[in-house]
Write a structure and sequence with these properties.
binds uridine-5'-diphosphate; alpha/beta; EC 2.4.1.-; UDP_glucos_trans; four-stranded parallel beta sheet; six-stranded parallel beta sheet
Length: about 475
């Protein structure tokens, strides 16, 4: 007798390397460890060409299917539309294509669940229409989710135009204290259209059956009882920490000039600097960072991107760089020559998990994107927090003040820049083993162990995913019997 096909989960990854990479890993684990079949849905538009092809080709060796939905028109959106708006519109307008795909899949298999990511709330009504569970994949941490929840709950019953501002200081479950300037983008001011969009989005999340969050217990400090209580009293669906979901280094391209360069550096000697898929510094800040690195006297590998006044560069996000762009041309005169031998500046997309897990790499100056953070922690590499956009400021607070795995130089100059002295001091503190530097390094080592434990069989994240997959399979079986 032929075995009936496995229940099938469909994951929908919005554009952006930071969404696609952990969702691909989630799909892989659901298939490899938890008895499900999976399709990972992506979008033809804005598909982040840097990460997209390699992530998808690495999945071809697994049993995860991949489908890119056809392009939809977006040219009516204003040229300066925020990235979040573009993503919501893209996904909303793609729903008919997704519906057709789901009908197709359910003609041969039993649908187990729909899993859109944080920008995919337009997908949730489709799950209700088809009668399947819906879980939102949240690629950041539970603190970021708690900020969303607090904002929505503060505005329950309020209509657009009457929304209330969050307080200047917010205490989140677990004891994280956030100041207004560290709130994620869009949460600072209730008068801004972005605030209203976030509330609408957050309200739609309530239609989900749960959140799968890319984190693990030890990354979420604080009193576990308090966190548990807050979750129980929440008006939001339950939270399942299932991370860290990190791309295996073997999936990344192993042939790269920066890996070759790292091979020739002493163990534990190199500071790695990268600001994610789309982070950009101003021309002046780029120069200040270069000076600070030079002053520190340490070895470095720096992924340099085109300077921009916007902390997030849309062209970088979608990977549509112009061939004429040469970010290295913006480094200070003579910098490359003066640091040659001990420093390497590259403009290319680097295999970041391989770089972080390389024995030569000792510290990471990072924009605190949550994937980069988890990759650093999983390699036991301490960080210098340099937040730029999205929820990175709050991640920087969490990492430097609560988790204790990062140092955070501050922008104390009158022009708002982080000064070369502060940069050199943070790098030296970490690399030369000052008291704070040693504490942060120790913590990185502890978290590395905890990350391994969380994802091993019987570990907390493995168990969470097992529990959720069990619910999905039971529901699929129930529907089959009807
Ligand atoms: N990344 C990479 N090479 C690069 C830049 C980024 O492999 O040159 C990967 C990085 O390892 C991470 C993802 O892209 O997995 C970026 O996600 P993150 O959440 O750190 O930041 P975002 O780009 O979403 O702001």
């Amino acid at each position: 007798v032929a075995a009936s096909p496995r229940p099938h989960v469909v994951l929908v990854a919005s554009p952006g390397a930071g969404h696609l990479i952990p969702m691909a890993e989630l799909a892989r684990r659901l298939v490899a460890h938890h008895g499900l079949a999976a399709t990972l849905v992506t979008f033809t538009d804005l598909s982040a060409p840097n990460a997209h092809p390699t992530v998808l080709s690495s999945l071809s060796a697994t049993q995860v299917s991949t489908v890119a939905l056809p392009a939809v028109p977006l040219d009516d959106l204003p040229a300066d539309a925020r990235i979040e708006t573009v993503l919501w519109e893209l996904i909303g307008r793609s729903i008919p294509h997704l519906r057709a795909l789901l009908r197709d899949i359910s003609s041969t298999a039993s649908l187990a669940a729909l899993v859109p990511d944080l920008f995919g709330s337009p997908v949730l009504p489709l799950a209700a229409e088809l009668g399947v569970p819906a879980y939102v994949f949240f690629p950041s941490n539970t603190t970021a989710l708690a900020l969303m929840r607090s904002t929505v709950e503060l505005n329950d019953g309020a209509a657009s135009g009457e929304y209330r501002d969050l307080p200047d200081v917010l205490r989140l479950p677990g004891g994280v204290l956030l100041r207004r300037e560290d709130y994620a983008d869009g949460f600072q001011n209730s008068k801004e259209p972005a605030y209203a969009r976030l509330i609408e989005e957050g309200r739609r999340y309530r239609a989900a059956d749960g959140f799968l969050v890319n984190t693990f217990d030890e990354m979420e400090l604080g009193n576990p009882e308090e966190i548990k209580q807050a979750v129980e009293q929440s008006t939001f669906p339950p939270v399942y920490p299932v991370g860290p979901l990190i791309r295996p280094s073997s999936d990344e391209d192993g042939a790269s000039a920066c890996l070759e360069w790292l091979d020739s550096q002493p163990t534990g000697s190199v500071v790695f600097l990268s600001f994610g898929s789309a982070g950009a510094l101003s021309v002046e800040q780029t120069a200040e960072l270069a000076d600070g690195l030079e002053d520190s006297g340490h070895r470095f590998l720096w992924v340099v991107r085109m300077p921009s006044l916007d902390a997030i560069n849309f062209a970088l996000f979608t990977g549509h760089r112009s061939d004429r762009d040469d970010p290295l041309a913006w480094l200070p005169e003579g910098f490359v020559e003066r640091t040659s031998g001990r420093g390497l500046a590259v403009a290319a997309w680097v295999p970041q998990v391989r770089v972080l897990s390389h024995p030569a790499t000792a510290a990471f100056v990072s924009h605190c994107g949550w994937n980069s953070t988890l990759e650093s922690v999983a390699s036991g590499v301490p960080m210098v927090a340099w937040p730029l956009y999205a929820e990175q400021s709050m991640n920087a607070v969490l990492l430097s003040e609560n988790v204790g795995v990062a140092l955070r130089p501050r922008a104390t100059r009158a022009d708002g820049l982080i000064a070369r002295e502060a940069i050199a001091a943070a790098v030296r503190e970490l690399m030369d083993g000052g008291e704070k530097g040693r504490a942060v390094r120790l913590r990185a080592g502890e978290l590395q162990q905890a990350a391994v434990r969380a994802c091993a069989p019987e570990g907390s994240s493995w168990q969470m995913l097992q529990e959720v997959a069990g619910k999905w399979k039971a529901a699929a079986l129930g529907r089959q019997k009807q």
